[in-house]
Write a sequence for this structure.
C-alpha cells in the first residue's frame, strides 16, 4: 500500500488545505508515503511530509502581501467593507522600466521558502523515505514537469517550489537550466494522475475550489481584472480536466480516491494574503474534514428503529416456524 496526499494550487486558499491536512493526519492518524503539490500545494508538502503541522499553520496564518511580493503589482482598497484589487501603476511601470518580464516580483517569497523550508528539513525528508514532488510548467519546452526531492539538491528544490508558486505575469518568472518556468497550475493544477503513475494505491486530494461553480463574475473594468478572469476561466477547466483524468485512472486501476473540495467560495483573488481570513480558512478546512469524516462514519451506523418497527419485528419473529 502506498498512500498519497495531493494538494492543488490556490494561493492564499492553501490555508484551507492546511486545516484539512491537519485533521486527516492528526485526528484520522493518516500516514502518507507520497506528497504532491502544485503552486501553494508545493509550498506545503515539505512540512506535511515531516508532520510539521504547527509550523505550517504558523506560516500560512502569518503571511501578508509584503511577505510574498518584493514589488507588489496590486493596490488593495476597502470599499463598503469589501476588498477591491486594482493595479499599482507605479510599481508595474517600475518593473517595465527595469526590463522585467512580469508586472510584479515575488523575490520575498523565495527568501521565505529558504527560511521556512530548511536544509535540515530537506535532509530529514530524504532520510525518512518520503517522496515529495512539486509541479512546474516549463514554458520553454511547453510541458509539465514534476520535480522530486529525491532528484534535487536543496537549492534546486527551493527553486522548483518557488517556480511552482509563481503565478506569472503577476509574480516572478523562474529562469533555470536555459528554460523559463512558471506556476505548475497552468498545466497540472491537481496532479492526481502523477500520484498514480508514481505508484499510489490510495489518494487523498485537496482541491481548493468548489465542486460546482458558484459564482458569476462581474464584468471586467480594466486589463488587470480581465486578465485575472481569463486565467481563472482557464485554470477552472484545467482543474476539471485533471480531476476527470485522475478519476478515470483511479477507476481503471482500482485505486481509492478521496476528494476534498472547498464547500464555499473562499475568495475571488487568491493573490491577496489576509492573515485574519487565512486563520479563518484553516479552521474551516479542519471543520470541513471533520464533517466529512462524521458523514462517512454515519454510513456504517445502523438506523435507529422506532417503537412501532421494533414491535413489528418482534411479531415477525413470533410468527416464524423454527
Amino acid at each position: 500500500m502506498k498512500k498519497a496526499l495531493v494538494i492543488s494550487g490556490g494561493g492564499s486558499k492553501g490555508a484551507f488545505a492546511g486545516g484539512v491536512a491537519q485533521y486527516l493526519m492528526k485526528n484520522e492518524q493518516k500516514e502518507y508515503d507520497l506528497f504532491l503539490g502544485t503552486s501553494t500545494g508545493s509550498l506545503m508538502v515539505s512540512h506535511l511530509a515531516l508532520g510539521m503541522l504547527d509550523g505550517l499553520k504558523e506560516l500560512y496564518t502569518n503571511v501578508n502581501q509584503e511577505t510574498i511580493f518584493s514589488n507588489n503589482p496590486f493596490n488593495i482598497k476597502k470599499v463598503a467593507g469589501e476588498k477591491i484589487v486594482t493595479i499599482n501603476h507605479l510599481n508595474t511601470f517600475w518593473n517595465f522600466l527595469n526590463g522585467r518580464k512580469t508586472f510584479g516580483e515575488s523575490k520575498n517569497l523565495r527568501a521565505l521558502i529558504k527560511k521556512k523550508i530548511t536544509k535540515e528539513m530537506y535532509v530529514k525528508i530524504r532520510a525518512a523515505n518520503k517522496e515529495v514532488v512539486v509541479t512546474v510548467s516549463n514554458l520553454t519546452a511547453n510541458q509539465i514537469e514534476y520535480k522530486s526531492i529525491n532528484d534535487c539538491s536543496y537549492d534546486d528544490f527551493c527553486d522548483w517550489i518557488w517556480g511552482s508558486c509563481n503565478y506569472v505575469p503577476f509574480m516572478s518568472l523562474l529562469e533555470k537550466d536555459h528554460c523559463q518556468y512558471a506556476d505548475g497550475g497552468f498545466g497540472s493544477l491537481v496532479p492526481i494522475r502523477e500520484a498514480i503513475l508514481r505508484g499510489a494505491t490510495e489518494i487523498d486530494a485537496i482541491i481548493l475550489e468548489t465542486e460546482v461553480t458558484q459564482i458569476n463574475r462581474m464584468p471586467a473594468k480594466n486589463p488587470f481584472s480581465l486578465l485575472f478572469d481569463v486565467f481563472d476561466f482557464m485554470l477552472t477547466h484545467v482543474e476539471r480536466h485533471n480531476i476527470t483524468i485522475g478519476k478515470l485512472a483511479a477507476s481503471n486501476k482500482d485505486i481509492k480516491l478521496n476528494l476534498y473540495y472547498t464547500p464555499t467560495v473562499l475568495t475571488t483573488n487568491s493573490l491577496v494574503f489576509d492573515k485574519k481570513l487565512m486563520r479563518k480558512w484553516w479552521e474551516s478546512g479542519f471543520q470541513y474534514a471533520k464533517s466529512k469524516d462524521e458523514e462517512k462514519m454515519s454510513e456504517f451506523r445502523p438506523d435507529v428503529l422506532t417503537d412501532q418497527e421494533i414491535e413489528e419485528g418482534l411479531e415477525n419473529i413470533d410468527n416464524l416456524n423454527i
